[in-house]
Design a protein that fits this description.
Blueprint (H helix, E strand, L loop, with lengths): L2 H17 L5 H10 L5 H5 L1 H4 L12 H27 L5 H20 L2 H4 L4 H7 L12 H10 L20 H5 L18 H20 L5 H6 L3 H4 L2 H31 L13 H5 L1 H4 L10 H5 L6
Helix pairs in contact: 5-6, 5-9, 6-14, 9-11
Length: 310
């Protein structure tokens, strides 16, 4: 095809595109003559991105801490991007499911191995000094991580283990919310009193979380998996990917986070506490809450020893 024929074909395609929405292509083509050429820095918004790291102290390694957590949030965004596609896919197949979940798993694999950036990449003395300026903020308050959990499994699997027998699919979201496993990080269940860590988080995000609970009630990964034809539920590639994702999110990644926190909070004999004041050990360690997205894909023995040997 000659260049002129190719040009005509492209122009005809543009005409068809704009006519389909009741517009003429000519004004858009004229505007294109005056538009600036796209650059990498404008497309990626490099200047904006690199000005989002605002230190609160004079310690150089605080920059590592801030940037690392922002990278985490960007990866959480990509994970949610993949999970939402599974949730909304009308004719869901095992192949599509496995492809999207594999992408999400790779992001979590990256998150897991990246903790060395903080553990080996920050001076403990600097961290010990600048961490107090973070109070009462905490990584606990990452709402995107909560969205990932809600998008991954049925709500009952995120309820505090102590209260699961009293909650079912007919339980109001408000009641379920008050018994999510992560409430244990900042709530006294005897008095109902909540820490400032938890109160700030809920003031900012409770409505959004309740909305996500409703949206993913029947669209989460586990529900969508169970809606597949029996043959697809037996697809070994999909099952293995789901097991990998479940273990990575709820054991491997959590324990990498746990061990890094332990290194900085309790290293060299320190008996410190998390910046948000949470009971971080019982909140984080998977053996206490047994957070499992896809329980039927694991044996009784695997569930019994969930996170024990890590």
């Amino acid at each position: 095809m000659s260049d002129s024929n190719r040009r005509e074909e492209l122009l005809d395609g543009l005409d068809a595109k704009f006519k389909a929405v009741g517009r003429d292509a000519e004004p858009f083509l004229e505007g294109l003559q005056h538009a600036k050429l796209l650059t990498y820095w404008d497309y990626v918004q490099t200047d904006v991105l690199l000005n989002l790291q605002t230190q609160r102290t004079v310690f150089p390694d605080e920059m590592v801490f801030i940037t690392y957590h922002q990278i985490n949030e960007l990866l959480f965004k990509l994970i949610l991007w993949e999970l939402k596609q599974v949730a909304e896919q009308k004719n869901l197949s095992a192949i599509f499911f496995e492809e999207k979940l594999s992408r999400a798993s790779r992001y979590f694999d990256m998150l897991t191995t990246s903790f060395t950036i903080m553990r080996d990449g920050m001076d403990p003395k600097q961290y010990e000094q600048f961490r107090h300026t973070l109070t009462p903020a905490s990584g606990f308050q990452s709402v995107q991580y909560r969205y990932i959990e809600l998008a991954s499994t049925e709500l009952i699997n995120l309820i505090d283990l102590r209260f699961r027998q009293n909650i079912d699919r007919n339980t109001p979201y408000e009641y379920a919310f008050e018994h999510m496993y992560w409430q244990a990080a900042g709530k006294d269940y005897k008095t109902g009193k909540k820490s400032i860590l938890l109160k700030n988080f809920e003031d900012r995000y409770k409505d959004d979380l309740l909305e996500r609970m409703s949206f993913y009630n029947t669209k989460n990964l586990w529900s969508r998996f169970k809606s597949l034809p029996e043959a697809d539920q037996q697809n070994s590639a999909l099952v293995n990917t789901m097991r990998h994702y479940d273990r990575t999110v709820n054991i491997t990644w959590v324990m990498a986070h746990y061990n890094t926190a332990k290194y900085y909070i309790e290293g060299d004999g320190k008996a410190g506490e998390a910046t948000g004041g949470s009971d971080w050990k019982k909140y984080m360690h998977p053996k206490y809450q047994k957070r499992i997205f896809f329980p039927q894909l694991w044996t009784d023995n695997e569930i019994e020893n969930w996170g024990v040997d890590v």
